[in-house]
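Structure in, sequence out. Go:
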């Protein structure tokens, strides 16, 4: 896998993070941590890639089935029902319907999980906000107390029912609330919450209730994060009180890495799958059709760091073609995440493999 030399930080020193994570029994710990990269039981050095014939459900099924087969063979982790008989699909709708997780991709995964032995009631879709789920077509009736999509339950993180006071990420960054009025309205406003709330609560269903969960993000740029993609969808767009981090890019990058390192959250995340049906390279995370590109490609990996690094390169290529400045140097989240063992992004250790097993150089 090859990236432009400007993207490769070969001489960067070890990243030192101050971690303050509160989990389970409500005990906060903070310590200076240097954690070397370590391989878990899933292959973090592979990205599987496939070409799509189109963007319909059948097209996604044709591409995803062999990719999952290769992942299962390489990792030894079979996507079959376990003791909990629950599986979650974390989607992204926070930019509105213009650039949400493709519905055909979600429908394909529902079909695949049913083929693996899960019942519809044992699969759930999860994302932050009810209004944006509704505007993006994942909830038919906002007043339905038990919303569903294609026969599977939809869980809303910010309705408050998925939190437990003992499970939260603790950060000294002050609390902010960002109010999104409507996908048809350009007004975005910041409202500071009066209380000194430094907690971001974690979604219990993905921590404790699933055999595994799958991350289905989309890719945009972001003024604070650099890239709003795989890692962000699994972390900041998966907790409460996340907008406080966006005032401080360094704080946002550290929060992404630290949340991703929470063992209970990380243990359940089996892999991420990204379709390039739509990628927005400037103006994100707010949807702007003028800056959206589409490519019939889909990627699967257990390494969110390498995926985001790959898509940052795609964003910068599109920016260069359109006469915009690149996002450079790469955001610090890459080195933060690598230092915590979330995954490496060095092209020397990452291999892109097509579904027919041929190595692909980018």
């Amino acid at each position: 896998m090859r990236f432009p030399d400007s993207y490769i930080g070969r001489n960067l020193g070890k990243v030192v993070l101050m971690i303050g994570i509160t989990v389970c029994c409500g005990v906060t710990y903070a310590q200076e941590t240097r954690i070397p990269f370590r391989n878990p039981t899933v292959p973090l050095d592979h990205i599987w890639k496939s070409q799509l014939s189109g963007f319909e459900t059948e097209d996604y099924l044709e591409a995803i089935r062999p990719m999952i087969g290769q992942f299962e063979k390489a990792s030894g982790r079979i996507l079959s029902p376990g003791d909990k008989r629950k599986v979650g699909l974390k989607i992204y709708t926070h930019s509105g319907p213009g650039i949400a997780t493709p519905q055909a991709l979600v429908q394909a995964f529902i079909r695949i999980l049913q083929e693996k032995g899960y019942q519809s009631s044992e699969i759930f879709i999860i994302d932050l906000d009810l209004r944006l789920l509704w505007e993006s077509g994942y909830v038919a009736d906002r007043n339905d107390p038990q919303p569903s999509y294609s026969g599977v339950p939809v869980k809303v993180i910010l309705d408050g029912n998925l939190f437990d006071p003992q499970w939260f990420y603790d950060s000294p960054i002050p609390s902010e609330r960002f109010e999104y009025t409507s996908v048809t309205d350009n007004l975005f406003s910041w409202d500071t919450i009066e209380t000194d709330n430094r907690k971001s609560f974690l979604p219990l269903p993905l921590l404790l209730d699933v055999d595994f969960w799958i991350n289905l993000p989309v890719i945009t740029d972001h003024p604070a994060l650099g890239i709003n993609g795989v890692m962000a969808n699994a972390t900041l767009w998966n907790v409460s009180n996340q907008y406080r981090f966006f005032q401080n890019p360094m704080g946002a990058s550290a929060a992404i890495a630290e949340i991703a390192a929470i063992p209970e959250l990380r243990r359940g995340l089996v892999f991420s799958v990204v379709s390039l049906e739509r990628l927005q390279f400037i103006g994100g995370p707010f949807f702007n059709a003028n800056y959206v590109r589409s490519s019939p490609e889909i990627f699967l990996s257990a390494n969110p760091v390498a995926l985001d690094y790959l898509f940052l390169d795609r964003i910068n290529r599109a920016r260069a073609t359109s006469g915009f400045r690149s996002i450079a140097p790469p955001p610090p989240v890459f080195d933060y995440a690598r230092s915590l063992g979330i995954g490496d992004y060095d092209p020397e250790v990452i291999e892109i493999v097509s579904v027919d097993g041929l190595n692909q150089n980018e």
